[in-house]
Amino acid sequence: MGSLGLLLAFICLGSLIWLHVRGFKDGAFADPILFLTGVSLISYVFVRWDRAKVPTLVMVCGLILGFATTLIPMPLSVEQRAIEAFNQGVDAMNRDDCGQAIARFSEAIRLNPELVEAYCNRGIVYYDKGEPDKAIADFNEAIRLAPECAETFYKRSIVYCNKGESDKAITDLTEAIRLDPECAEAYYNRGFVHDKKGEPDKAIADYTKAIRLNQNDAKAYHNRGLVYDAKGELDKAIADFTEAIRLAPECAKTFYNRGFVYCDKGESDKAIADLTEAIRLDPECAEAYYNRGVAYDDKGESNKAITDYTKAIRQDPNFVEAYNNRGLAYGRDKGKPKKAIADFTEAIQLNPKDAEAYYNRGVAYEEKGDQAKAEADFARAKELGCEPE
Question: Which segments of the chain belong to CATH 1.25.40.10?
Answer without folding.
Answer: 320-389
